[in-house]
Design brief:
By secondary structure, this protein is α+β, with helices and mostly antiparallel strands. It has one domain: Alpha-Beta Plaits, CATH 3.30.70. Helix content is 18%, strand content 38%. It has helices spanning 32-42, 77-86, 95-98, 130-143; strands spanning 2-13, 24-25, 48-57, 63-71, 99-120, 160-163, 178-188, 196-205, 208-210. Strands 1, 2, 3, 4, 5, 6, 7, 8 and 9 form a 9-stranded mixed β-sheet that branches.
């Protein structure tokens, strides 16, 4: 495995706490699952896996209250299946009929340095080598290319990104230490039909959150 470091920044972010049922309330710091999604937005292939190891917070944690319009429903699966079979169907959502306002407590003016390992799964691509995917990622990130725009928790909060070649030469993380409580690590897709969340006890230590391995005893369901 090879370790890469990305700097991710943006004017707003929301890493939603799952215990909040109606209103969106963000964790204090970026979650490992959101960080993984940013790496996968630049490069994802069946033969690679991204493992987040460390998240550095580069700017003071600041908050903002916003009220946004959201759509309450989703397109019916039954309508989609009918349209696929018959070639016609009602797949539209009418915003004026389905709009609702929700308040949210979001982060503002955020920046992170995220360290992740790129694992090569040889069984998925026996004829290739790790170097192929490492070069592919490095080429794409240096050109600013991505499969979809990386985002900070919510798709409307897009993230600017850059590859950090030498993290030791970069400015230090914020000088803050505190307990962040239980944080979402990622979803367990062992059963694809019913993915389950897994959590770990997160701690901000001098501006850095160390992320335990997925199979660590620190990660629980």
């Amino acid at each position: 495995m090879k370790t890469y470091c990305l700097e991710l920044s943006g004017p707003y972010a929301c890493f939603t706490r799952p215990e909040m049922k109606v209103e969106r309330v963000s964790y204090d710091v970026m979650t490992p699952s959101a960080a993984r999604a940013c790496f996968e937005a630049i490069l994802w292939k069946p033969a690679i896996r991204w493992h987040i190891r460390k998240i550095e917070v580069l700017k003071s944690i600041r908050w903002i209250n916003l009220r946004r319009n959201e759509v309450a429903g989703v397109v019916s699966t039954r309508n989609v299946e009918t349209a696929m079979k018959t070639g016609t169907g009602n797949l539209g959502l009418y915003i004026e009929d389905d709009r609702q306002q929700r308040a949210g407590l979001f982060l503002r003016d955020v920046a992170y340095r995220v360290h992740a390992d790129l694992e090569f799964l040889r069984a998925q691509d026996p004829s290739s080598s790790p170097m192929k995917y490492q070069e592919m990622f490095e080429r794409r990130v240096r050109k600013g290319q991505c499969v979809n725009q990386p985002y900070l928790g919510c798709r409307e909060f897009s993230a600017a990104f850059r590859l950090v070649s030498d993290p030791a030469s970069e400015p230090a993380a914020i000088a803050e230490t505190r307990d962040l409580g239980f944080m979402l690590h990622d979803l367990d897709f062992s059963n694809p039909a019913d993915p389950q969340p897994r959590f770990f006890r997160a701690r901000l230590e001098n501006g850095t959150v160390a992320v335990p391995s997925w199979d660590s005893e620190e990660v629980c369901g």
